[in-house]
Amino acid sequence: MKKRIISVLIALILLALLTVVVSADEYNDPELLVDKAHILTDSEEADLIAQLNEISERHKTNIAVVTMPYTMNENGVFMGMTPEACANLFFRERGYGYGNSDDGVLFLVIMDTRDWYITSHGYGAYAITEAGYDRLENEIIPYLSSGEYAQAFSLYGEICDDLISRARNGEPYGYDPDFDYNAPANSPTTASWIGVCVFVGVIISAISVGVMASKNKSVRIKAEANSYIRQGSMHVTTSRDMFLYRNVSKIRKSNNNSSSGGRSGGRSVSSGRGGKF
């Protein structure tokens, strides 16, 4: 009996350890705050890191902030990258993104050119709609412009938290549940206007054709096709069929049946928005 109890306990311990290993592998836990521009104090960094970690773990979606002192040269690029490309590079190279679909949102701030860019991937791209980007831009950027960086980043975390929560509940921000998105053009008003436009177009066309026809007095309908040929204008002396050439195109059939997805293949769905502050 004791041996059976010990065996069960060992099995439970091994199962717990396996669960921990799988969870650690599934959840990517990178640094969610990278303040290379050094615009935050130590206490502000600690508060923001705690906030970003809590939101990211709760939603299983990385919410990250990256600041840089500069990225661009005099031509407006840094090693050929725009702020958008730089944000996406940071997202990929620093290992952001939860799970196989790389669920995450990254807020990049570049100090010398005063550029900002928010890139969203996986579920983050689904949760942050165009209306969501409008909200982020309208509420956060004024704080950046006035130099209140800690407030801007904290508000960014709060808004991302709210946007993802709304999406989890089936009502992404900006989505109207009472509006029929599948058939917006079938409303009575739209159909009526289409009918009126078609009717007016037909009337105008008929009037135009009638006016042009009334001015043409020399044309009469002929009963036979040869009535349109002027007598003596055409003489066929010789007729024959001649084969000129043949053109054959060959296309090799591809044998590549491989496919990829997730982290091992193509990147997940993404979206983004940026500007100046």
State the main characteristics.
alpha/beta, 277 residues, single chain
Written overview of the protein:
This protein has helices spanning 2-26, 42-59, 83-93, 123-127, 130-145, 149-168, 188-215; strands at residues 33-35, 62-68, 104-110, 115-121, 270-276. By secondary structure, the chain is α/β, with parallel strands linked by helices. The protein has a 5-stranded mixed β-sheet with strand order 1-2-3-4-5, with helices on both faces. A hairpin with a 4-residue loop joins strand 3 (104-110) and strand 4 (115-121). Helix 2 (42-59) packs parallel to helix 6 and helix 5 packs antiparallel against helix 6. It is elongated. Mean pLDDT is 74; it is low at 8-27, 179-191 and 245-267.
Give a topology summary.
Elements (H helix, E strand, L loop, with lengths): L1 H25 L6 E3 L6 H18 L2 E7 L14 H11 L10 E7 L4 E7 L1 H5 L2 H16 L3 H20 L19 H28 L54 E7 L1
Structural class: alpha/beta
Residue share in helix: 40-55%
* Major sheet: 5 strands, mixed
Write down how many β-strands occur, each being a DSSP E stretch of 2 or more residues. Answer: 5
Overall 3D shape: elongated
- Estimate the strand proportion: 5-15%
Number of alpha- plus pi-helical segments: 7
Q: Round the Cα radius of gyration to an integer and report it.
A: 34 Å
Terminal Cα span = 71 Å
The strand order across the widest sheet is 1-2-3-4-5
The overall pLDDT, averaged over residues, is 74
Runs with pLDDT <50, length 5+?
8-27, 179-191, 245-267
Provide a concise account of the structure shown:
The protein is α/β, with parallel strands linked by helices and 277 residues long. 44% of the residues lie in helices and 11% in strands.
